[in-house]
Write a structure and sequence with these properties.
It contains 3 helices and 24 strands. It is mainly β.
């Protein structure tokens, strides 16, 4: 059963309904409002939804009571302790999707107002697009090591549930092995499928990032990294380590030579690539000065995923990575990584939209500041990455 986070709101809710009976612990009241985020959904969808309340303080889970939403989608719990270190979670189910959210009473307050947005479900994937596909290619002895950041966007106002439990699919080049993910928190949400891997959880409206890595054997002669784009892809960027290997692609255009302290990267990109199209990167020749074989996984800090996997990918590119134990996905195994992010749009048929790129960089700088403030990035890496992002932002804004 899939689970989607609820949106917590602070708007005033005028509720007139019978509160759920909760063993009296205090004077606290939770007032809630269920809304349907799918256009044209029937008001009936809000009526009679069972809402369950738990006390999840200190990681334990204690059932406090249940109630049902009224004719307007409203619900209420009362008799709750309001000490600020106490956390409550309420859950409800609609069309097989379990929604849940946690919150605590504001200090000194006895009323907590929450809003829950549910959606209709669909098996139609026409609303799924890839806003950005970032591909980073490095070389080890006998192998190509590839790290990818996929920014997915469900542009519909429905939850995509796929077919037979399989939802969003990701393609991999032939010969891909040692697939791993940057975050083990949701390790049961990916499975291997023919030609790649797939989500086994529902995809709510909005964006989601997936950061993963794998490797492909390479003998130094020639390798065609070919893959089918499952969904329309607004922007595709490939960065290939400049170590003497020739790179060609019929679908992507060479942009520039860029990169980190130790290794420069050849930058190829393409915009507005249709679903079911093929992207091929052909590598020819032996890589110079490559190290011994190494796992294809990540050297990133898990905490960074709370802000944006894009930061983590940039840190790999700039040589400012942090240690992390990788999670592998073997046959029959599962793992996942996800986080919220904002993807930049591109002009149809033209170069990347620099205004959108600037907005994305500004968000990433703010996320980086937050990560540094919480001690997730060391000072040297923070200063290095921030300086380069600020430099690029100045270049964009000065034209």
């Amino acid at each position: 059963m899939s689970r989607i986070g609820l949106v917590l709101g602070v708007s005033l809710l005028l509720l007139v309904l019978s509160p759920a009976a909760v063993t009296a612990q205090g004077e606290g009241i939770i007032e809630g409002q269920v809304m349907n985020g799918t256009a044209g959904a029937s008001q009936v969808s809000l009526v009679g939804l069972e809402v369950t309340l738990y006390d999840v303080t200190d990681g334990s889970e204690a059932l406090l009571g249940t109630t049902f939403s009224d004719g307007q989608g409203r619900f209420q719990f009362e008799g709750l302790a309001t000490d600020p270190d106490r956390t409550y979670e309420f859950q409800l189910e609609y069309q097989g999707i379990v929604y849940g959210a946690q919150s605590a009473f504001p200090e000194g307050e006895t009323l907590l107002r929450v809003a829950a947005t549910i959606y209709e479900t669909t098996s139609d994937d026409s609303g799924i697009v890839v806003e950005r596909q970032h591909v980073l290619i490095d070389f080890e002895a006998g192998a190509v090591v590839i790290r990818e950041l996929c920014v997915l966007n469900n542009t519909a106002d429905t939850i995509y549930v796929g077919q037979e439990g399989i939802t969003v699919q990701f393609s991999l080049p032939s010969g891909a092995e040692e697939l791993s993910f940057s975050d083990a928190e949701e390790a049961n949400h990916f499975v291997e499928v023919t030609g790649g891997f797939a989500y086994v959880r529902a995809l709510a409206p909005g964006q989601r990032q997936v950061l993963y890595a794998y490797q492909v054997p390479y003998d130094g002669q020639q390798l065609a990294l070919s893959r089918r784009l499952v969904y329309p892809t607004n922007s595709y960027d490939a960065m290939i380590a400049d170590v003497g290997v020739e790179v060609e692609s019929p679908q992507l255009e060479y942009q520039s030579l860029t990169g980190g302290e130790e290794t420069a990267y050849l930058h190829f990109s393409g915009q507005n690539l249709p679903a079911d199209s093929e992207v091929v990167l052909t590598l020819s020749g032996a890589a110079q000065g490559v190290a011994a074989p190494a796992p294809a996984g990540f050297e990133l800090d898990l905490g960074l995923q709370r802000y944006a996997p894009g930061i983590a990918l940039l840190m790999v590119l700039l040589g400012a990575a942090l240690p992390l134990a990788q999670v592998r996905l073997g046959k029959g195994g599962e793992a996942s990584a996800e986080a919220n992010a904002s993807g930049a749009e591109t002009r149809a048929g033209g170069p990347p939209d620099t205004q959108s790129e600037g907005d994305e960089l500004a968000h990433l700088i703010a996320d980086l500041d937050d990560a540094y403030a919480e001690g997730l990035v060391d000072e040297q890496a923070y200063k290095q990455l921030r300086a380069r992002m600020e430099q690029r932002l100045r270049e964009i804004r000065t034209g």
